[in-house]
Amino acid sequence: MIRQILQPKEKKVEYIELIFDLIFVYVIGRNNSLLHTFSGGFVEPAAFAAYILTTLAVIQIWTYTAYYINIYGRNGVRDHVFLFINMFLMYFIGEGTCAEWQNYHTQYHIAWALILVNIGVQYLFELRNRRDSKAVRRHIIRMAVILFAEALIVAADILVFRLTRSSWLSLAAILISMCAVLVFGRSRGGDFVDFTHLSERAMLYVVFSFGEMIISIASYFEGAFSLRNTYFALFAFLIVVGLFLSYGVFYDRIIDRENKTNGLGYMFLHIFIIFAMNNITNGLKFMQETEIDLMPKMIFLLSSFLMFFGFLFALGNRHAKVRHSKYNRFFLRVALTGTAFFALMLFFRENMVINIAVTVVFVFVLFAMIRHYGNKMDEPGEDI
Predict the structure, then answer these.
(1) Is the per-residue pLDDT at 55 higher than 80?
(2) Residues 6+ apart with CB under 8 A from 222
């Protein structure tokens, strides 16, 4: 009976969730703008640190919201009111994400803390509806405590920043709360989670992150027409296509979206997949920036690609439909391909024409391997 209440058979993504996602499209662009100030051959250290902090903070806010809606959301008036309040608060976060971010630190952190409190209060409202289940009530209280604790630490960072001009406490709050959710959320099992809905929500966030990546490619068309610009634009577009197709195969063919899981690990891995995608978006832009030294932007882009595929394969490792007998060999081939890519990119680092072509080959080789693996999902006895 409890399971039927907590996990409807067909929980669909509601229009209100899609509207909520739109504000994050705006904020992603604001986050990326932090990487447009350069010094010493790379992004200014303070701006780069702010980029890491704000990107992880925004992805985490989205993750907390999607997770709550998945378990307890009813698409009712109360849900809508709380969601619209957080959408409005996100504007303050977006406005505070700029080159002069230090001047908006207080505004940013007040809005951030209030958003966390907002989600925590929604959990507490659920207590009166869950009087018949101690396990559910325990889960609600734990999630609320984690959210309120993070909000308190985020608010405390306002004072810390004024004293030290550093936001290390905010970054610590993000990492500590993520670990706490993984540890304390594990005990309630997967009965309360609609994993099909949760995986679809994560997929939609990935899709509009790809949208931001596609928009960034438009910068290759600036200025007068030239074959060189067209060449780079085409290959950059192919890179995005290859990444999108790779994720699509994982989502459609490899991930078991009817799996009984608490969904926490799945969402945790997506935080870093999306973070890597944002880095790739900026890394493709860096290729055109003459103010950035060759080696820093090369390392940044390479690490972004490896992070994306690393966490994508970790997703498959944890949530695949079946585990084939040659599973480990498959991932060894993937690792060797990534190593060869890293070496070739460093070797041709001074020739961007070859460099971007190598990247396209790497992305599509991995896509072909992923697609082959996906085709074997229904043939567990076959070698991959």
Answers:
(1) yes
(2) none
